[in-house]
Design a protein that fits this description.
- Strand 11 and strand 12 form a beta hairpin.
- The protein is built from 14 helices and 15 strands.
- The mean pLDDT is about 95.
- The strands form 4 sheets. The chain has a 7-stranded mixed beta sheet, covered by helices on one side. A 4-stranded antiparallel beta sheet has the order 11-12-15-14, covered by helices on one side.
- It is of the alpha/beta class.
- The structure holds pyridoxal-5'-phosphate (PLP).
- The site of pyridoxal-5'-phosphate has 13 residues, from helix 5.
């Protein structure tokens, strides 16, 4: 069903605003549906606070407001039934930074960093930044949904102290892992004495009403002891430009090692990032509820339209605003170049270790999405 909501039908003009997403195609008639950044205005409460802070005109160093600790703690309990201590939090200026810090913690200990592919590119590059081998285990498709290949994992030789990097929910395939899948992975981690970094940046973007997010570390104390959880309000409330993320680590020794790996290199988030994160978490959930309705409608519409296009097979995401598409049957060398030539800028699957695939960003107005899909349809029909 087509959802009309002026919160998301009307968006600010982004061309010429130093937007990574829009400037890539400046001066070109290519609709940008690539990087994971939404075109919508953030919730009005966040915009209002940002305006107030700008009017104040002082942009000095910041410190985390006590209220942000409070809201993170109460939110993890209210939304995921996960009880955390404030002392478990470490603030980060970005999640990619957190993924790299996690690898740094294990640079002298891990023989490999294991991850499921396809996956968000920094999962593939971060281990190499610390001379650690990146081991990639392709996901398997079960009933139209990508999941962890436990057969392959069980056959993989591992050493005590290796790191697993989990994208949960999963970018780009949109899987919301079930409790059974997570428990099975948790048992594997504990049995083999591995550690895990669980990137949960998309956790508040569960599109299917009957599903909910289960933090990996909430499964058991034993599992939590081996887990670094990364979270942020940035994807949910469209705040990535304000750099405020955090790690949750209950194991004191692991937390100490994480903080040592950050030392002297990782700055605190800016004051504005802290304040806006708190505001979004405290007062942004009504906006988020409406966002999810809009995204769900965009997802179902795009899935339906792309399913009709020859050579393209879309996978409906359970979470995130990203739609993964198999374009291998199109038999073109570079599907993303093909669609750029047709006026639609998608992410190239090769960057996610999956050549021949594409990722489409649903975080845009329905009107823009419709225009992009018409262009894609035309291009495919003319092939
Ligand atoms: C799974 C995942 N982790 C991390 C990031 C980036 O986070 P940040 O911008 O805070 O570095 C993204 C952005 O798309 C993502 O999808």
């Amino acid at each position: 069903m087509r959802i009309r909501d002026k919160l998301f039908d009307l968006v600010p003009l982004r061309s010429g605003t130093c937007s990574l997403k829009w400037d890539k195609y400046a001066e070109k008639d290519i609709l940008p549906l690539w990087v994971a950044d939404m075109d919508f205005r953030s919730p009005q409460c966040v915009v209002g606070l940002a305006t107030e802070l700008c009017d104040n005109g002082n942009f000095g160093y910041g410190v985390c407001p006590p209220g942000l600790y409070d809201i993170v703690q109460s939110r993890t309990m209210d939304l995921y039934n996960w009880s955390i201590e404030k002392s478990w939090l470490s603030w980060l200026p970005g999640m990619v930074c957190g993924l790299n810090v996690a690898c740094r913690v294990f640079e002298n200990e891990a023989s490999q960093v294991i991850t499921n592919t396809p996956v968000y590119p920094p999962f593939l590059s971060a281990p190499g930044n610390f001379n650690i081998l990146s081991t990639r285990i392709p996901m398997v498709l079960e009933k139209g949904r990508f999941t962890i290949d436990f057969n392959k994992l069980n056959n993989l030789p591992t050493k005590k102290g290796d790191l697993f990097m989990l994208c949960h929910p999963h970018n780009p395939v949109g899987t919301n892992f079930s409790r059974d899948e997570l428990l099975r992975l948790g048992e594997y981690i504990v049995k083999r004495e591995l550690f895990i970094c669980s990137d949960e940046i998309h956790c508040d973007l569960i599109l299917d009403n009957e599903l909910s997010h289960i933090p990996f570390a909430s499964l058991s104390e034993e599992i939590a002891n081996r887990t670094i959880t990364l979270m942020a309000p940035s994807k949910t409330f469209n705040l990535p430009g304000f750099g405020c993320s955090f790690a949750v680590i209950s194991n004191p020794d692991l937390r100490r090692r994480f903080k040592i790996a950050m030392r002297g290199i990782v700055p605190d988030p800016p004051a504005m990032g802290f304040r806006l994160a708190e505001e979004a978490y405290r007062n942004g959930d009504e906006w988020r509820d409406r966002l999810l309705v809009y995204l769900r409608s965009n997802r179902d519409f795009a899935f339906g339209e792309i399913s009709k296009m020859d050579g393209l097979a879309p996978y409906s995401p359970q979470a995130t605003y990203l739609l993964w598409i198999d374009a291998r049957e199109m038999n073109v060398d570079c599907p993303h170049v093909f669609f750029e030539n047709a006026g639609v800028g998608l992410s190239d699957g090769s960057d996610f270790d999956a050549p021949g695939f594409l990722r489409l960003n649903l975080g845009c107005t329905r009107e823009l999405l419709e225009r992009a899909l018409v262009r894609m349809h035309k291009a495919v029909s003319n092939l």
